[in-house]
Amino acid sequence: MAAQRQAKANDVSAANSQKIAEAGLLDKQQQTNAQATDQMTARSKQAIKDAGTLDSIFADSGLTGNTQARLQAEVSGNAAADETTIERNREAGINQSEYQADAIRANAQNQENRTPRPSVLGTGLMIVGAGVNAMRKPGAGN
């Protein structure tokens, strides 16, 4: 009976550890998403600022045409490339935490599997053995 209680306590401990670790990973994922959102917002603002600066330069200089269009396209392209990189980094961070969650679940399952559990046969033999020992004592069964 003590072995069953210990096995149950080990199972509960493994499950609690798993829940705590997974909650930490969920928090990490939320932080990763928030950070990526902040980075994308900052990059978008910078692209708008850069485009405005170019517009001012071209307005002051009186130049227009292909050069202006090419530079505006470069500003937009650079912003898009940066935002793609930010998104890829966000996805990689989320994937990494998913892999960590898988490892946490596997470790918890491994811990539960390593816990020795009494078998029904073993329990029955212990009961029979206790009965036989009781019968062997002097004065028993009289």
Features:
3 helices, mainly alpha, 142 residues
> Which overall shape is indicated by the principal axes computed on the Cα atoms?
rod-shaped
> What string, H for helix and E for strand, traces the elements in order?
HHH
| Radius of gyration over all CA atoms, rounded | 34 Å
Q: What is the helical fraction, as a range of percent?
A: over 70%
Major beta sheet summary: none
Characterize the structure shown.
With 142 residues, the chain is mainly α. Helices cover 89% and strands 0% of the residues. It is built from three helices and no strands. The chain has helices spanning 2-61, 66-114, 120-136. Helix 1 runs antiparallel to helix 2 (66-114). The mean pLDDT is 86.
Describe what is shown at a glance.
This protein has helices spanning 2-61, 66-114, 120-136. The chain has 142 residues and is mostly helical. It starts with a helix and ends in a 6-residue tail after the last helix.
Helices and strands in order:
Elements (H helix, E strand, L loop, with lengths): L1 H60 L4 H49 L5 H17 L6
